[in-house]
Structures are given as structure tokens and as C-alpha cells.
Amino acid sequence: MGGVSMRRDILQKMNRSFEDCAKTIDGLEFWFARDLQRLLDYDEWRNFLNVIEKAKISCETSGYVVHNHFVEANKMVKRGSGTERKIDDILICETKTCCI
Question: How many helices and strands in the chain, by DSSP H and E?
């Protein structure tokens, strides 16, 4: 029984972490792909981009307009030196995070 309880704890923590990463603008909930990348334990962005591309294909195959659910974006991140640089990111709408 301990194994089931432990798995439940892990799932609850992951769910909290997932919800903590959510952002809302004008009532629309979304996630930054780079936040999901870390949450899902992908070390490299290029590997996670492959997952996103498959999710986009699934979205299109299901009859959805991809750019309504996956929006290209940029954001500024701090470097170790304290300076900032622009990186590519993707905003993923609430309904399509399940495809990832």
C-alpha cells in the first residue's frame, strides 16, 4: 500500500508544480513551453521542441488551428553575469498542454 501512497504524493506534487507554472492573460490560461520543459525533466530545448512539434501535428490532425494554441514568443532571461538575453519560447494554451 505504501507504493500507491507514494505515487499519489508524487502525482499531487507534479500537479501543484504544473498549476504553479500556469499564467493567465485576459482570462486565458497558458504555459510557457520552457517552464514545461523543466517540469517534464527535458534537459535540452531542442529535444523538447520535438515533443511540441508532435503535439502541433496532433492538434492540426484533430482539426484545430495550430497557431491558436501554440504561439511563438520571446522572453528575456538573466545570464550568470547578471545581463539579460532574449530566448525563443512558445505559449501553449490550456487545452493543448495535454498533448505534450
Answer: 3, 4
Domain boundaries, the chain: 2-99
Summarize pLDDT for 11-53 with one digit per residue, the tens: 666 667 788 889 998 988 999 999 999 888 899 999 999 999 9
Distance CA 50, CA 42 (A): 11
pTM for the whole thing? 0.74
- Cβ proximity of 22 and 31 under 8 Å: yes
Give the pLDDT band of residue 84 (cuts 50, 70, 90): very high
Give the three-class secondary structure for 6. helix
Quick one: 7 exposed, middle or buried, by C-beta within 10 A (0-12, 13-18, 19+)?
A: exposed
Rounded to a whole number of angstroms, the CA Rg of the chain reads 16
Q: Helix, strand, or coil here: 73?
A: strand
